[in-house]
Amino acid sequence: MDFSSEPPHSRLLRVQGREPFNAEPPSSSLVNHHITPVELVYNRNHGPVRILDEHSHSIQIQDEIHAKNMTISLPELKSLPRASVVAAHQCAGNRRNEMGKIKPVTGTGWDDGVVANCRWDGVRLRDVLVHVGVPYAEDLHVCFASHAAPCQDDKYYGASIPMKRAYALESDVLLAYEMNEEPIPSDHGGPLRVVVPGVVGARWVKWVDTLTISAHESPNAYQQRDYKVLPPNVDSIEAAGPVWARYPPLMTLPLNSVVATVDHDLQHGRLVVKGYATPSDEGNITVVDVSTDDGKTWVPARIVYQEGKWSWTLWEVELFDVQLHGVVLSRATDASGNVQNRECEWNFRGVAYNAWGRREW
Ligand SMILES: Nc1nc2c(c(=O)[nH]1)N[C@H]1C(S)=C(S)[C@@H](COP(=O)(O)O)O[C@H]1N2
Ligand SMILES: [Mo]
């Protein structure tokens, strides 16, 4: 893999790996912004970051069902109706280090900053498919691929989603060309990337150059392996090897919340607690509660930011008469009545960790 032509990366991130470049901000800086500034957006790569030319970029659309191939240029895509969405995107490995305390896991050692809440502008995938004449059919898949660079586990990066997610009424699946109202920077997949609100970051293919309409899920390694929740008895690479195919790719992440900062005003026995919460695809967060007595009693936090169906939620709460030291827990509830659980079952890849948020003061 050739890393010699990467763009300069944000210097506000804690680097977990240089080649490929993987870095996250501290969650304490994330909660200061409703919309995450680009410089604070985590960067997750399985291969080199490439700088592509937006003027010559195009995508191939391969309809395997009707044996049709089409090419659509970026300017032509931009002539379709613009759509925008504010959505949290999150790596499946967010909070992996916490899961690793239960029992060792494999993968990049992420804390709780591998999440960002950005505005994305682009075209709806559904509009693109209608534009090029791909008819809807139940049970098909839309596969996304980027051949910009080879990756650690495959020759290209790929993922797929069921076609019904793209065609759902009010579908917010986009081929995005702007992030926070600017062209998407190379680190985040510019000039064109996939945005699938409510679904793990791994399916948000950066530098996308190919769409394939297929009867099958993407054959790419990152769809077939890696981003899956394996059962707890699978606890080594050897044990995982033969069983990957039995488990579905991780798509929606579960409801989550994290305590990002705790400021203790010693003199007045007062705590100011701030954090974020992220939705699953079953409706946005309705309540975030905090507890300082190990979950016996809960106090509702004030929701200070949320917009639309897919954004994260920022929350804040003041607590009085607190002890000198303690632990504050957070727990989110969503519009469908799902409540975040105290614990999260361990899995070998350390993905989808969503136990109650927890921070000491
Ligand atoms: N082409 C390509 N797309 C990719 C990846 C990658 O390595 N290559 N990583 C995926 C993963 S695992 C995540 S979590 C997100 C990260 O997006 P970001 O770096 O813009 O935050 O992009 C996804 N899309
Ligand atoms: Mo990821």
Automatic annotation (TrEMBL):
<dbReference type="GO" id="GO:0043546">
    <property type="term" value="F:molybdopterin cofactor binding"/>
</dbReference>
<dbReference type="InterPro" id="IPR000572">
    <property type="entry name" value="OxRdtase_Mopterin-bd_dom"/>
</dbReference>
<dbReference type="GO" id="GO:0020037">
    <property type="term" value="F:heme binding"/>
</dbReference>
<dbReference type="GO" id="GO:0008482">
    <property type="term" value="F:sulfite oxidase activity"/>
</dbReference>
<dbReference type="InterPro" id="IPR036374">
    <property type="entry name" value="OxRdtase_Mopterin-bd_sf"/>
</dbReference>
<feature type="domain" description="Moybdenum cofactor oxidoreductase dimerisation">
    <location>
        <begin position="251"/>
        <end position="358"/>
    </location>
</feature>
<dbReference type="InterPro" id="IPR014756">
    <property type="entry name" value="Ig_E-set"/>
</dbReference>
<dbReference type="GO" id="GO:0005739">
    <property type="term" value="C:mitochondrion"/>
</dbReference>
<dbReference type="Pfam" id="PF00174">
    <property type="entry name" value="Oxidored_molyb"/>
</dbReference>
<feature type="region of interest" description="Disordered">
    <location>
        <begin position="1"/>
        <end position="29"/>
    </location>
</feature>
<feature type="domain" description="Oxidoreductase molybdopterin-binding">
    <location>
        <begin position="46"/>
        <end position="221"/>
    </location>
</feature>
<keyword id="KW-0560">Oxidoreductase</keyword>
<keyword id="KW-0500">Molybdenum</keyword>
<dbReference type="Pfam" id="PF03404">
    <property type="entry name" value="Mo-co_dimer"/>
</dbReference>
<keyword id="KW-0479">Metal-binding</keyword>
<dbReference type="GO" id="GO:0030151">
    <property type="term" value="F:molybdenum ion binding"/>
</dbReference>
<dbReference type="GO" id="GO:0006790">
    <property type="term" value="P:sulfur compound metabolic process"/>
</dbReference>
<dbReference type="InterPro" id="IPR005066">
    <property type="entry name" value="MoCF_OxRdtse_dimer"/>
</dbReference>
<dbReference type="InterPro" id="IPR008335">
    <property type="entry name" value="Mopterin_OxRdtase_euk"/>
</dbReference>
<protein>
    <submittedName>
        <fullName>Molybdopterin binding oxidoreductase</fullName>
    </submittedName>
</protein>
